[in-house]
Amino acid sequence: MKKALKITLVTLFWIGIWYLAVLIYSLIKGMDLSYNPLFPYPHDVIIRLFKLLLEPSFYLSTVFSLLRIIASTVIATALGVLSAIVCSKINFLNSLIKPLLATVKSVPVTVFVFILYLLVFDLTSMIITILMVFPIVFANVYEGIKNIDRDLLEVCQAYKIPRKKRIVSLYLPTVMPYFVSALTSAVGLAWKAGIAAEALCPPENSMGLHISLAKQNIDNEELFAWALTLVLINLVFEFVLKKIIRAVFKRYLPNEVRNENK
Amino acid sequence: MKINNLTKRFGRKAVFENASIEFEENKINYILGESGSGKTTLLRIISGLDKSFKGEISPQYTKISCVFQEPRLFPNLTVAENIKITAESSPYTVDDLLKILELEGEADALPASLSGGMKMRVSLARALYYNGDLFLMDEPFGALNDELRQRILPEIFKRLEGKTVIIVSHNVEEAKSYASNILNLDLINNSLSSK
Questions:
Q1: What is the pLDDT of residues A85-105, one digit of tens each?
Q2: pLDDT confidence of A225, banded at 50, 70, 90?
Q3: A217 Cα to chain B: minimum distance (Å)
Q4: B68/A contact by beta carbon, under 8 A
Q5: What tens digit of pLDDT does each residue of A37-89 get?
Q6: Is residue B193, in this structure, part of any structural domain at all?
Q7: Nearest CA of chain B to the CA of A142: how many Å?
Q8: What's the structural domain count of chain B?
Q9: Where do the H-state alpha helices sit in chain A?
Q10: Whole-number mean pLDDT of chain B?
């Protein structure tokens, strides 16, 4: 109950700020205070969102974008984890992968989108998502592996503890908090980068296509409605992801992560 | 058990220089010596954890129970799981070991909730559960108070009968009470340096 009240108050606070911002903007620009098509009021955006909800293309685009981003995130996560394991064993491979990570870190997403636009138009958003998620998962899991307690490794060595037991009792509990932290930040980034790539290089049936069209038509109400949709989907996505992680890997997580938002 | 012509260096500093050390098999051996005399290094060499040395060890034991200077427990495993991780089966049950080490009721506890002394006793229980042919123990009773030591040490040594046991300690009285063979590393090092 306390938590629900807190969420309601926080939501109301930010809706209030939104109203105030529109009001101030309208006053400065000398525009109509009751309706602003460039910087719409929250109630206008919600009405537009309800209108979008009545269109079948809304669901089709949302589902396809969602599937693209989930698939790319899964691929990037698998690649990140595997590469981190291999690179932690072979130092040379770690040196080999560093330039790729440095490039992804320093080059803006837009540049990658423009390059991929000409090479693999339809796959642009997926590749961008992979490029954004992979380094985060890789770096965190690699760091986790490197932080494995050397003393406990010696215990495993002294008692000849089998590999499977070592993984379950030592590797997973050490690496899992790093992995969870990577995944939660990577998911948010996957959304942002994936949809941005879709908007710049829009495939059929995508949220990016609608955002791109709304921008071309200077339909800011629809832009805001899509942005709101993204926020809501991301919140649900993160919530579901945390539940899944906690259910599957519960025993490998430290107590503070296990009990977070219980 | 013999270690012949043992040479071990850390950079330029030699901890052992062509030393020969003998332990009594199937008996309790105590190693005494000042800090830095190489007691822990010697245990690490015998256990196979340190392979960067010259010399020969015979016979080579393959099943070794180790008690390290620190408890070295897996933080995410309960006390019972920490004990059972070393072996699929054992002549001892976890409950028996917890009883003799006065840890009854702690089977499901996580290491973080235990005191330093309790953690060390779990580490001892783990070594006993593994039931190695050779026991290497680095100051295993240092964290125990005198009363507890008097109660549980006879129980532990009863279960070590017939095993080759090498214990590193600073406690001369304890060594005199339980050891068949006491090795003073300071004397070995002094005789080597005077040669």
A1: 999 999 899 889 999 889 988
A2: very high
A3: 57
A4: yes
A5: 899 999 999 999 999 999 999 999 999 999 999 999 999 999 999 999 999 99
A6: no
A7: 20
A8: 1
A9: 2-29, 42-53, 56-89, 91-106, 109-119, 124-146, 150-158, 163-166, 172-200, 207-216, 220-249, 255-259
A10: 91
Which residue type, as a one-letter code, is found at position B52? S
For residue B158, being part of any structural domain is answered with yes
Residues in chain B within 8 Å Cβ distance of A251: 76
Q: Residue B93 falls within a domain, yes or no?
A: yes
- B77 vs A contacts (CB less than 8 Å): 169
Single-letter code of the amino acid located at A160: K
Cross-chain residue pair A152–B74, CB shorter than 8 Å: yes
B63: nearest CA partner in chain A: A159
Per the CB < 8 Å rule, is A161 touching B66? no
From the list B65, B68, B76, which residue is nearest A251 (CB)?
A: B76
- Is the pLDDT at B191 greater than 80, yes or no? no
Contact between residue B8 and residue B38 where contact means Cβ atoms under 8 Å apart: yes
* Residue B168 pLDDT exceeds 70: yes
Give the model's pLDDT for residue A139.
94
Domain annotation covers residue B18: no
Domain hosting B99: range is 25-53+61-180
CATH code of residue B145? 3.40.50.300
Q: Which residue in this structure is represented by tokens 């559960």?
A: B129
Q: Could you give the 3-state DSSP secondary structure of residue A162?
A: coil
Q: Which residues of A fall within a CB distance of 8 Å from B66? A: 155, 158-159
